[in-house]
Specification:
With 212 residues, the protein is an alpha+beta fold. Helices cover 25% and strands 35% of the residues.
């Protein structure tokens, strides 16, 4: 008989899975807009794009695993007011993991020493901003004491991992973006519509977790 994995077993499974072959672009494209903002892959632009690390942070809370997202303020240079992972541009001498951890500390006051890096998801190119993002997956033993930066973070959004795995919470709508009608897939959670690159990263994460 199959049984549900415990939180610890889920994190162990994820850490092991991230060391092996990942679903990659195929999974990411299940949550891409139609039409796409561009057809280039990260391999085509990696030498010229702006590189950034983002943190996919999992932690136990209220009896299940959660992940944290942020709604960006309108003052940000790119993707204003959109929902994203904590993260930002890689600085000279940094690894992508180090960039993700530094930015998470700046944005949410998450202490890097309190986290365990589990591995990385497939890097993704974002044509509108010319960013290449490198997602680092990490785990905390308890819910962090989030203290968001007023300049960068308009809202902290904590999403139960199981919510993202429910097919009914994945939706599609037609939006008008810059005067063009676009079909937008998104994860719906507590009035929020999580779309774009964030949804594409989550699509690969959830595809891996479905293998449990």
């Amino acid at each position: 008989m199959n049984r549900l994995l415990t939180q610890e077993e889920t994190l162990q499974f994820l850490e092991k899975a991230l060391k092996g072959p990942k679903p990659g672009l195929k999974a990411q494209l299940t949550m891409v807009t139609n039409p796409r903002p561009g057809n280039k892959t990260i391999k085509e632009v990696e030498s010229s794009c702006i590189k950034a690390g983002v943190l996919v942070l999992l932690y136990p809370w209220k009896g299940c695993l959660y992940l944290v997202l942020t709604r960006r303020t309108a003052r940000m240079a790119f993707h204003q007011a959109q929902i994203s992972f904590a993260g930002g541009r890689q600085e000279e001498g940094e690894s992508f993991e180090q960039a993700a951890l530094r930015e998470a500390e700046e944005e949410l006051r998450i202490l890097p020493e309190s986290l365990q890096i589990l591995g990385g998801l497939t890097p993704l190119y974002i044509p509108p901003s010319n960013y290449c993002i490198y997602p680092a997956v990490a785990a905390a033993h308890e819910r962090p004491d989030f203290r968001p930066s007023k300049h960068e973070v308009a809202e902290v959004i904590e999403v139960p991992l199981d919510h993202l795995l429910e097919p009914k919470n994945t939706m599609r709508e037609v939006w008008t973006i810059q005067g063009v009608e676009v079909e937008v897939p998104f994860y719906f959670f507590d009035r929020h519509k999580i779309w774009g690159a964030t949804a594409m990263v989550l699509a690969e994460l959830t595809e891996i977790l479905k293998r449990r």
